[in-house]
Amino acid sequence: MIQADEKDIKLFLYHAKQCDPKKCTGKKMAKFGLVDLSEKIERIPSRSILLDPMAQKALSPEDNSKKGITVLDCSWEEVERVFPQLLKMRLEHRALPYLVAANPVNFGRPFKLTSVEAFAAALYILGNKQQAEKIMSKFNWGHTFLELNHEPLEEYSQARDSKDILRIQSEYM
């Protein structure tokens, strides 16, 4: 178990039990006490930032992370099933900008991030670089994600708002 720093942003994971438990980054994060894992959608805290690839707004340093960050660890079919529930909840839907995966399954593929990579990217963008490094340190390929995306993550973390993120993203795509 890793000691949480008082500046750490609370991390929440909705886990639908649809992935290979041996490859599941969310389960491994929970094992180390790095994320609050739940199998019930209702346990996602109101006003938390939901990392949603379909969101209209990109995550940026201007977002308020006091209520935490939430990631959905499930198939697209499950997302379609739970999405009506998610829309009723008061969540801050935000999309991550262009980043490249470093996980062994999707290495080098843009936007194909694991749950831990999504959390690390969000933490980095929101200014919690040490927490991003801490969660990635539990994966032997974790440092590769931060190295591979260092330049865009640095630029995104310096952005003013969502529009600025989109401008920066366009330089990488």
Question: Could you explain how this protein is built, in words?
Answer:
With 173 residues, the chain is an alpha/beta fold. The chain is 38% helix and 11% strand. It has 7 helices and 5 strands. The protein has a 5-stranded parallel sheet, covered by helices on one side. α3 runs antiparallel to α4. The protein starts with 10 loop residues before the first strand and ends with a helix.
What labels would you give this structure?
38% helix; cytoplasm; S-adenosyl-L-methionine binding; transferase; Tsr3_C; 7 helices; 173 residues; alpha/beta
Briefly summarize what is shown.
The protein has 7 helices and 5 strands. The protein has helices at residues 25-31, 76-88, 115-125, 129-136, 142-148, 150-157, 162-172; strands spanning 11-15, 36-38, 49-51, 69-73, 92-94.
